[in-house]
What does this fold into?
Amino acid sequence: MGTVKKDILIGVLISIFATVAGVFLYLEYFSKYSFDKTLQLIQDGKLYGKVLSLAAIPNLFIFFVFTKRKEDNKAKGVLLTTILIAITTLILKFF
It folds into this structure.
């Protein structure tokens, strides 16, 4: 695998990890309900897209760190994942 593809993959994986961590942090620390209760409320209210949007915020920070360090291919991976999250959020909003 080429260096460019490897760096993009690293960016994608870091972005996915940051998004999952963002979901966990939101559910565990920012919700006034318990973890299980918050998951139930999200499911009942069909709020997947909104939570996913909030969870993608750490990607912004990671993107800027990679661009500041001139690791553009990793930043491309983060941007790609963020775009996919935005498309997923849009789809979830209408279904």
